[in-house]
Design goal:
Elements (H helix, E strand, L loop, with lengths): L1 E7 L5 H4 L2 E2 L3 H12 L3 E6 L14 E6 L4 H14 L4 E5 L1 H5 L11 E3 L4 H12 L10 E7 L2 E5 L17 H6 L4 E2 L2 E2 L1 E4 L27 H9 L5 E4 L8 H14 L5 E4 L2 H6 L4 H6 L2 E9 L3 H6 L9 H10 L3 E8 L5 H13 L4 E6 L7 H6 L24 H10 L8 H20 L3
Parallel strand pairs: 1-3, 1-4, 4-5, 5-6, 11-12, 12-13, 13-14, 14-15, 15-16
Antiparallel strand pairs: 2-9, 6-7, 7-8, 9-10
Helix pairs in contact: 2-5
Length: 440
């Protein structure tokens, strides 16, 4: 039994600069399951120049990708089914889990929309054993009977506890010198919790696990971290800590192990403010950078997003992080109905609070959310490639060219960032070293 695991990617403006380059963690988890089942498997990812092996016919092909790659995933499935007609093709991942029906085509055999690695294992066993058993949860199955195509729909599945499996780290060790978060290099991804307890209207993290949130087990996370030879660890949970006790448990576990780590994680602004007394301890136990979704600087906007934070607290939150020498990546969104003064106010806020690293996205209704269903009939486009948070998919109040001019102008301050300049310098140095090594 042979399996291909492919990350289908679409190039965006970020592909040019590649400020973030990390391992495809979801496929590394699946690869680990296949390894444990003694299934020969090959990871395919253009980002790391991992190509399809020659002269090998796969029995199983697993495709995943971001929302912008929806059409390309379908295209890849058709190409593979034509090339390897006897292969079973599985598609899965975050976007597919929220939009399973969009992948019900004759070239795809299974749409995997569960968060459970055990369910994935059962699916692979079904294929190996050529079983006719249908899944009641987590998997949609193509049934062809006398050339008639029908889909058996598996119900949504919830994970109630963290499964005891770690991702395969072979790619990490092969490419660790290339993995980065801006100037921070040799970075490994860690996943702890499942789902999210919050109700932000623009996000579907909560609904992916059928609205069921599973807390991270910091003992398990640190056991995994201790095995990995990385300089930085990016814990990619939607929120690193949701309650004060989470942070206290994290601090206690690290101090008990006397572990020296450098952690990057997501935190909400309200958590930082309410637990400001813990920031020094968190810094001392390894928290070097937090990513904070501020989203907007207006409470009117935040209420519409069901964000649950107070924009008036944001300057204090930024100051607290600076005082404790914790790096910040601030996340903002601009709405299609922004006027000139809205762009100006955001620019002033970034400048006055001396925010060094930030991202600005265009508010985009993500397919699979309630917002998308409400707006889909009035969208300018349904091309998935345009849903990259850098394109307008709703009509703007300002003329389009003015909106885009102001949107990109907001990014100019990043050229003054010390960290961005360090990243650019390090990248040039790395490329120069590579050219010398290759004799160019």
């Amino acid at each position: 039994m042979i399996a291909f695991l492919k990350k289908v990617r679409v190039k965006t403006i970020f592909s040019i600069f590649q400020p973030v380059k990390v391992e495809p963690l979801e496929l590394c988890y699946l690869k680990s399951v296949l390894n444990n089942m003694n299934v020969e498997n090959y990871l395919i990812d253009d980002l790391f120049n991992l190509k399809e092996p020659n002269n090998i016919i796969p029995d199983i092909i697993i495709l995943t990708g971001y929302n912008v790659a929806e059409n390309e995933i379908i295209k890849e499935a058709r190409i593979y089914k034509f090339k390897f007609p006897k292969s079973k093709i599985i598609v899965g991942g975050v976007h597919i889990a929220g939009n399973a029906h969009s992948f019900h085509i004759k070239e795809i055999d299974y749409v995997f929309h569960s968060q459970s690695l055990n369910t994935f294992k059962l699916l692979i066993e079904k294929i190996i054993n050529d079983s006719d058993t249908l899944f009641s949860h987590g998997v949609d199955t193509l049934i062809i009977n006398k050339r008639l195509m029908n889909w058996h729909i598996g119900n949504k599945e919830s994970i109630k506890k963290i499964e005891n499996i770690e991702p395969d780290r072979q790619l990490f060790y092969q490419m660790s010198y290339k993995l980065r978060y801006l100037e921070k290099r040799n970075i490994a991804l860690i996943k702890g919790s499942i789902g999210c307890p919050y109700n932000c209207s623009y996000c579907y993290c909560k609904i992916l696990n059928n609205n069921h949130y599973v807390r991270a087990d910091f003992n398990k996370i640190l056991n995994e971290i201790e095995k990995i030879n990385a300089e930085f660890f990016w814990i990619v949970d939607d929120n690193l800590f949701n309650q004060r006790q989470d942070a206290l448990n994290f601090i206690e576990e690290i101090e008990k192990r006397n572990l020296k780590v450098k952690i990057i994680g997501y935190l909400r602004a309200d958590f930082i403010l309410k637990n400001s007394d813990l920031l020094r301890k968190l810094k001392n136990t390894g928290l070097v950078e937090v990513i904070v979704g501020f989203e907007a600087i207006s409470n009117d906007e935040l209420k519409k997003y069901d964000k649950g934070t107070n924009a008036l607290d944001y300057p204090k939150v930024i100051l607290l992080l600076k005082e404790n020498n914790i790096d910040l990546t601030a996340l903002f969104m601009v709405k299609p109905n922004y006027r000139f003064h809205d762009f100006r106010n955001l620019y002033k806020f970034i400048k006055e609070n001396n925010i060094d690293i930030y991202t600005i996205s265009i508010l985009t209704p993500i397919k699979g959310t309630k917002d998308y269903e409400l707006l889909k009939d009035n969208l300018l486009t349904h091309d998935p490639r345009k849903f990259d948070f850098m394109h307008l998919v709703e009509k703007s109040k300002l003329p389009k060219w003015i909106f885009y001019s102001l949107f990109y102008f907001l990014h100019i301050n990043l050229l003054k960032s010390k960290r961005v300049r360090k990243y650019i310098s390090n990248r040039r140095h790395y490329e120069f070293e590579n050219m010398e090594f290759l004799g160019k």
